[in-house]
Structure formats: C-alpha cells, structure tokens
User: Which sequence fits this backbone?
C-alpha cells in the first residue's frame, strides 16, 4: 500500500525528510510497489546535460504493480467505471481481474502484429475502456504508447505519428462528443496516407459509421482480439526504459514528444494520487480529463490503478445533453473525488445554478482543478455550490513534463486559499528566480518558477531531440529546471501560479505554442505574416488573439479572411487552436527582440497600452499606434 500522509504535521515531517535525505524518502515510496530486481542506486542526475536516472538498474513491469501485486486481494474490486456519452446508454464496469484479462488479450494481439519491446504504437481514440486497455497492453509488452488527443486534425496527427515512428495506429470508426460524431477513421486515413512507417491500422467499432477499410493494412479490433489467450507474460523493463511519448506544443512550431520512463513515473504517479486526493479504499474517483492529455495518463489510468482505486472514465462533454451532466454522473456513481479543469468550472458557472438544482452531490469528499490557474470567482462557486462548503479543493499545479502534481494542497490537510496551489509536495524543491537567474529567498516574492532537484516523474528527454530538451527546460537558468511559469510566493509561503512567461498559450488547459498557430495562419495565401498572443478569456482562461498582415487584402474583405483563417487553423491543428480574435494590421512592430514584440502585442490584446512607452527597444511607434486604433478590444491608451 502506498504511504499516505494524514495530518498537516505529517506533511511537514515528510517534506523535511524528503529534503534532508531524498534518496531514503523515495526509496521508502518505491518499496510499496513491485520490482523484479531492486535498484543499485536511487537517483543519478545532473541538470547540465541534462541526465536523469531514477532507481538505477532496477527491473520491473508497471502492469505487475497494477495486476499481479493485487489480484489475490483486489481481483474482484472495480477498476474502471465507464460512463458513455449518451446518458441513456449502459455504463460498463470492469473489475481488476476482467481488466487484466482484456489487457492480456490485447497485448497478445499487438504481439501478433509484430509489435515488440521499444516499438511505438499511436492511439487516436475516443474515451472508451479500450483506450485504457490498449495503453496497459503496450506497457505489458514493453511497447511505447503515444496517445494523440482525438480532437487533433489529420495534419497534426500525421506529424506526431511520423515523429514517433509508430508502426501501428489504433483508432475507431468514430467518436461521440455530445451531439456530434467525430469521423476518427476518416481523419486517421488522411493522416496515415502521409505516414510511410505505419504498417497496420486497428479500428474499434464504436459509432457503427460506415468507414473504408484498406486491404492489407486495416483490421477490425474485434477480429484482432478474437481467440487471443487471456495471459501474456509481462516484458521485463529497466526502470529507465521508455513508457510513453506524449506530444505537447512547443515555441518552435514543431510539437515536442515528451518522453516518460517506467520506474520513476510509476512511483511518482502512485504516490501523488494517493496523497493529493487522499484516496481511501471504496472511494469512486472521477477525473474528467481526456486520456489524450497528461492528466488522463497520470490520473485517469496509472495513478488510480496503481493504488487499486475505482477510476471513472467519461466519454462525453459537461454540457450535453445539458449542463448538469457532471452532477448526474456524480450522483449516479456516488463519486468521492472529482477532478476537472477551471475552463469547465467557468463554463458551468456561466450557465447558472439551475443545473445544480435537484443534484444531491452528497458523496463528494474532494474537489480538484487542473490545467491552469483557477480564478477566485470560479473557486468560490465550485466550493460553495458543488462542494456545499464541505469539500476541500486541491488546486493542482503540474505539467506534461513533470509527470505528476508538483504543488498542491493535500485534500483536507493543507489549509487552502482561493487561486493558490499552496505548498510543494514532499520531494519537490521549487525555487523562484529573477530574470538574471538569482534565487529569490523568503516570502512575499515574485518571479520565474524553477525546480532545484529532480523528482521521479520528471521527463527524461524530447523524443529524438535531446538538445531541444536541454534548450527548452535547462538552458535559461543554469542548474535549474525552468517551468516557463511565473509565480508569487506570498507571506505564508504559499505559491500562486501567474501563468506562462514564454511563447505558450494555455487555452482551456491545452498548452499551444504560438509558432504552431502562426505557421497555420501563414499558410493562408493572403497572409504575409502573423503574430499570436494570449489574452484573458472569461471561460477558457486564455483566448487566442491573432495579429495578421494581409497587404493584398481588398477593401471590405476583412470578415471573410477572418473566417477563412479560423477555418484554416481548425483544419491544420484542430478546433481548440482556432483563434478567438483575428485583427488585420498594416504591419507588426519591428523590435530588436521577438519577445519585446510579443509583449507589445500582448498588452494591446489585454486592452492595456499604458506601459508601452516604457519599452525602450520599441522602434516603430507609428505601427503600434495604428494597431491600437484598430484593436478588437478597448485599449487604455
């Protein structure tokens, strides 16, 4: 059983222990899980190359800590509860024994396709039990899974498949999302047409949509699994063998394949899940995230299952068939812990309290937020109306690259403040540095958030590009991991995340690189150049504001080009990257630094140009004045 903190004094004791002797602390946590061979050394690292290894030379298979370790005592306990998109359809429950058999069968299916240890498998699927089964099957045989969110376009999908070198793609005929059917197979077909490395496409029947099956390449999921043995021996893995690649947007426009390895990720997700959410046996845990994002990997699949928890997967959206869908699910399945994004909370808040009427929500013990900072109004609504003033809120801060939560309250233990992530978890040493890299000690300070020492869940590299890994996370401030976020540490030592300080926009918890969106906009034949910044958005946290130069645009054609630019970005990247505002401008400010230009444009998009005169590197005040005059927001000037 994973060690669990029970009191605030216990937290401070464990935190101090983890700082004084981190090797002993993490060794104690690791001993709660199953290893075939014990480690020779707990951690070996430096942030200069960077090189990070946890549980050096240990051998394991992560699925053995989920299944073999617990089947005798927990085999008949519920593992996954699946709630379908349509509330009129039947829910599905899988026990740990049933899940084990399904994972083994699909693992054998993958082996029959020629998939071996180290091969990459891409998953482009809806939120169905088979997605979790496939992930665990990959882990069972040592294949590296790469889940690609099923909202990405064909072009984005092909880029990720090619970068990973995936031999097999798992998809479905379609996916339900509210009232819509997403044509996943058609999108996958378009993508795979540009992916010469792909040998096989496995298709799950979900929507019963007519799809084209390519002879010699495509196979139905049910045909592949039919007759497979219900036992597959687990592949022995080194603790530092890759577990999965998960793509996140980067500032260069090319997505980054973040690589997580097996042993450290296992220990960290298991430990943080149990302690942040204070999970107890018999609780029903509901994380609303899609498995296509890191939250789904760590806190829908691996973290809960490593703890023998009941984890609830939801296929649909919070507002269909009405905005009470989440609360109906909570009451139906007697959910104990509920974990969602501030975007969803703000959206439901905006629709009023009528959708909470008649909902008991008496089973709830813990509420959580993830993906972006939560504003105070949303925090109070969530606490007062959903939690009925009795459920602690864990406002968690972490990233794809961190693997798991780094800063968060422990539910019911850490005193909370609205909009504060509060305190670091044991084993995590955050520091705040100024722009010159000087560490700002003490309380009541604000600067750039870094981490001083590694933790087991930290990413090891960017797939195929370790230099980019170094440049992105370790070159800005020497001997620190740089998160890219600004932060304030208040008078009580609590951390409040202030948002991105680099060229990344956080839209509804989705991190999007500005360069990726700009590249998509620049493909429009009338666009000469563009610049994209984030701006405050009442629902999504940050919206996307695009400044676009179109010198050949005819008079009166602005509305048409705005519409076609938005459509183009949707097609190239996906609907979540669609700009909210597109301003046609005569030119972009010419500055000595791209960061300065972006700072100018961000100020304009935020409606505040009052401080622009302080930017001494501004070279073209006339252009800036013209942009301000035609801005799509009211600019204080």
Assistant:
């Amino acid at each position: 059983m994973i060690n669990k903190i029970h009191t605030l004094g216990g937290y401070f004791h464990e935190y101090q222990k983890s700082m004084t002797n981190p090797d002993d602390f993490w060794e104690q946590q690791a001993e709660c899980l199953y290893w075939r061979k014990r480690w020779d050394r707990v951690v070996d690292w430096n942030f200069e190359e960077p090189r990070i290894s946890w549980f050096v030379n240990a051998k394991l298979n992560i699925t053995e800590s989920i299944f073999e370790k617990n089947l005798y005592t927990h085999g008949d306990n519920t593992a996954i509860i699946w709630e379908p998109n349509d509330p009129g359809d039947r829910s599905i429950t899988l026990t740990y024994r049933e899940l084990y058999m399904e994972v083994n069968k699909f693992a054998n299916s993958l082996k029959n396709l020629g998939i071996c240890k180290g091969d990459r498998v891409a998953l482009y699927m809806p939120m169905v039990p088979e997605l979790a089964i496939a992930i665990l099957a990959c882990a069972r045989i040592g294949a590296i899974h790469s889940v690609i969110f099923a909202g990405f376009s064909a072009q984005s999908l092909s880029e990720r498949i090619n970068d990973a070198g995936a031999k097999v793609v798992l998809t479905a005929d379609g996916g339900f999302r509210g009232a819509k059917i997403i044509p996943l197979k058609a999108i996958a077909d378009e993508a795979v047409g540009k992916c010469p490395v792909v040998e096989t496409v496995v298709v799950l029947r979900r929507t019963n949509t007519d799809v084209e099956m390519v002879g010699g390449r495509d196979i139905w999921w049910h045909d592949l699994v039919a007759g497979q043995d219900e036992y597959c021996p687990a592949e022995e893995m080194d603790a530092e063998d890759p577990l999965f690649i998960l793509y996140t947007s980067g500032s260069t426009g090319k997505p980054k394949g973040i690589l997580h390895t097996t042993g450290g990720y296992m220990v960290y997700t298991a430990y943080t899940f149990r302690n942040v959410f204070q999970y107890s046996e018999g609780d029903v845990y509901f994380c609303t995230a899609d498995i296509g994002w890191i939250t789904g990997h760590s806190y829908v699949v691996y973290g809960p299952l490593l703890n023998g928890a009941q984890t609830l997967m939801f296929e649909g959206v919070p507002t269909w068939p009405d905005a009470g869908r989440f609360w109906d699910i909570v009451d139906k399945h007697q959910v104990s812990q509920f974990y969602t994004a501030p975007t969803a909370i703000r959206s439901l808040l905006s629709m009023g309290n009528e959708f909470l009427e008649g909902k008991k929500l008496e089973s709830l013990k813990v509420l959580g937020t993830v993906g972006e900072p939560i504003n105070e109004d949303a925090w109070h609504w969530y606490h007062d109306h959903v939690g009925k003033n009795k459920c602690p809120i864990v406002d968690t801060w972490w990233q794809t690259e961190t693997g798991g939560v780094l800063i968060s309250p422990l539910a019911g233990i850490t005193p909370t403040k609205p909009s504060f992530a509060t305190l670091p978890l044991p084993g995590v040493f955050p520091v705040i540095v100024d722009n010159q890299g000087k560490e700002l000690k003490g309380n009541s300070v604000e600067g750039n958030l870094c981490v001083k020492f590694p933790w087991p869940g930290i990413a090891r590299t960017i797939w195929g590009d370790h230099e980019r890994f170094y440049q992105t996370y370790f070159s800005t401030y020497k001997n620190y991991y740089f998160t890219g976020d600004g932060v304030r540490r208040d008078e009580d030592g609590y951390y409040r995340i202030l948002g991105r300080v680099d060229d990344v926009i956080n839209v509804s918890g989705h991190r999007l690189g500005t360069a990726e969106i700009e590249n998509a906009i620049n493909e429009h034949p009338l666009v000469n150049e563009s610049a994209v910044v984030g701006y405050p958005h009442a629902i999504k946290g940050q919206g996307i504001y695009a400044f676009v130069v179109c010198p050949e645009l005819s008079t009166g054609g602005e509305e048409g080009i705005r519409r076609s630019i938005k459509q183009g970005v949707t097609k190239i990247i996906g609907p979540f990257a669609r700009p909210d505002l597109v301003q046609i401008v005569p030119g972009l400010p010419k500055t000595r630094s791209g960061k300065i230009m972006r700072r100018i444009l961000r100020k304009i998009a935020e409606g505040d140009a009052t401080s622009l005169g302080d930017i001494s590197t501004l070279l073209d005040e006339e252009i800036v004045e013209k942009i301000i005059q035609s801005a799509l927001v009211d600019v204080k000037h």
